[in-house]
């Protein structure tokens, strides 16, 4: 099947889904790649359209075993025309539960034909040097696996004459999805006196929960606890207050210390 261009769409507050997706796209080796970074709230106000001869690659992190709920409306508004699609979830070494199945289902329901799927491991959003969880993932080995997966997808596309030839894509998971879509409303971010007020935290927040004029002001209901503002603060001025997030971090570190490996479904 001839692919005219690749559309790479990702949501990636702390950059791991993005890194994995970029590796996959390198492996695809296509000259024309259109990148849609849906981490930015503005981008999610515009519907994504994909044509029949475009390959759509979607990469999202796993939140509570599911596709992040804040993406539901945007993913559910995709326009596609039998376009082949690659579904990718990135999780923090606990489990991806039904997230890959959910992503496959939503893309199918919008006119995509999922032809491949993968689950990769990314450093957990709650992880830090003090209590690391999957620290540094995706690592060099994961990136190599992402590139190889992209090459496998390119081989599959060469072997079929249209997306419908690919057959149904089987991925792990069960219906109903279960899990939790309502995230915690938790006041967990401490802002230190060394905050220079640069506003980077507000610009990297995927939900506009941080006030650009006063970065210590956080809309708790909008915050998805992604920790992007903490991890990306150039002054290291933001940290986690002791509470549910640090307790989860300690639990995850203890229970899911054994590194997991990426999985592929082609
Ligand atoms: C609210 C929330 C829920 C999460 N739930 C899970 C989960 O169920 N399983 C898991 O292994 N990791 C979970 N994670 C970790 C992320 O999936 C993981 O760190 C991912 O690599 C983050 O992607 P990003 O760097 O693209 O933002 C969760 C993270 C957050 C913020």
Describe this structure in words.
Helices cover 26% and strands 19% of the residues. The model has no long low-confidence stretch (mean pLDDT 97). Helix 1 (16-28) links the parallel strand 1 and strand 2 (33-37). The chain has helices at 16-28, 72-75, 99-109, 140-159, 200-204, 228-232, 244-255, and strands spanning 5-10, 33-37, 49-50, 54-61, 79-80, 83-91, 112-121, 189-191, 238-240, 263-265. Helix 1 (16-28) packs across helix 4 (140-159). The chain is built from seven helices and ten strands. The protein is globular and about 60 Å long. The chain has a six-stranded mixed sheet with strand order 2-1-4-6-7-10, with helices on both faces. By secondary structure, the protein is an alpha/beta fold. The protein binds flavin mononucleotide.
What average pLDDT do the residues reach? 97
Heterogens = flavin mononucleotide
Largest sheet: 6 strands, mixed
Q: Which H/E pattern describes the elements? A: EHEEEHEEHEHEHHEHE
Query: pLDDT below 50 for ≥5 consecutive residues: which ranges?
Result: none
Q: How far is it from the N-terminal to the C-terminal residue, by CA?
A: 16 Å
User: Into which percentage range does the β-strand content fall?
Assistant: 15-25%
Strand order across the largest sheet:
2-1-4-6-7-10
Which of globular, elongated, flat, extended, rod-shaped describes the shape? Answer: globular
**Helix run count:** 7
Give structural attributes.
two-stranded parallel ribbon; 26% helix; 266 residues; binds flavin mononucleotide; 7 helices; 6-stranded mixed β-sheet; alpha/beta
